[in-house]
Amino acid sequence: MSSRVRTLLFCLLVAALSPPALSRPAGEGIRIGSKKFTESVILGEMLALLARDAGAEVEHIDQLGGTRILWNALRAGEIDAYPEYTGTISGEILAGRGLSTAEAIRDAVEAEGLRMSPPIGFDNTYAIGMVESRADALGVRRISDLRDHGGLRLAFTNEFMKRDDGWPGLRDRYRLPHDDVDGLDHDVAYRGLLSGTIDVTDFYSTDAEIAEHGLRVLEDDLRYFPRYEAVILYRADLAQRAGAVVEAMLRLAGRIDARTMASLNARAKIARVPESVVASEFLLDALGVDVPVRVQTMAERIARRTGEHLALVGISLAAAIIVSVPLGVVAAKRPRLGQVILGVTGVLQTIPSLALLVFMIPILGVGEGPAVAALFLYSLLPIVRNTHSGLREIPVGITESARALGLPPATRLRVIELPLATGSILAGIKTSGVINVGTATLGALIGAGGYGQPILTGIRLDSVPLILEGAVPAAVMAVGVQWIFERAERRLVPRGLRVGK
Length: 501
Description:
By secondary structure, the chain is mainly α. It is 59% helix and 9% strand.
């Protein structure tokens, strides 16, 4: 390996493993976050457009995985603001503190070094619902009525299943007999409800699907759910860094009622108008703010996502090759230490990918950093194991002959053993590369971009073309990675050592 190649690979390793700064210096622009449901994306677009109208350079990191990801990113300075709900703040983020009033919530938020805006104007509370015809047939109008129908199939969104203000508390308050309850993605739950595979799920009260599909919101007769007034959470230092931006964003206070928000959701979710356009049209009509938006073409979107996905896969795989091949050599030469190395890399492979991505956020923030680090860790095992196996499977006679010729260990490894194991090593690299292409789609949940972004959007909007916009290029890239390493094998592995050639 030439010194130039070694230097390049070393730089890639440093780039992959160096954490980004948790707080960004002033002048680097404003970063707005939003969750992975349509209403949050629309509100995030509004905040971004208002900040842009105030003269700031703005990046909107949309469809981040969940409440905790956004809250932690805000506290760490990875984002500057995002839309949230008072019920979520009191019932999940700051649960257990008995925050029952807006003033108490605001004081608790300020104690964290953050600020909360006045309410935007609507209450998007949780609700429990069914298909209207099914509810009529069973005579179900209130949540209490579910007690008499223990055979109904209940499934709730994954976040609702775990929240303090979600399913556990709801079940206890209403003494519901349903035990076999599954967790689903919010948009998948709607599809299950409409297809009849489930009977009851949770809604957001401003969801466009409620009116569109004739769904019934069951009366919360025991008043379990608190108010979920939409607000803006932002960093306290934002007022010092960009006071005009804060003033611009606060113009949303009191300007959107529940009916208006439901209609905006319908424009994006049912009519398939891009969220940026929906937000821009509302700001022009309601506030007189005219910020033109440009919707990218499909070709532009695919080109952008391809570059992001290649960066995630390329950097993480290059770093893994640098680390894994030496580890595999050590594992082959030192059997006891090798068992430890193989064991540790095997354990890393068993960690659920989404859990590993979330675990990385407090260390590396949101974006490409944690995604690259997680992909790097997942790439280790196939390369380490194949390097180890390739070296251990070299016939003893060959290694004994090399020793008899007086070749030192380093020379034997470089001249004889590694060339003989090249086919096995490349097979491990190829496996890691293909796995990385698929796993990298999950990086969109933490703002890393790539092909996962259109897949998430397609799931959220129930749009097969958008899902395919991410899935098909990802499949093509995986095939391309496999082809590249097969060509590399033809060039690097002697013909007589190629399996099946």
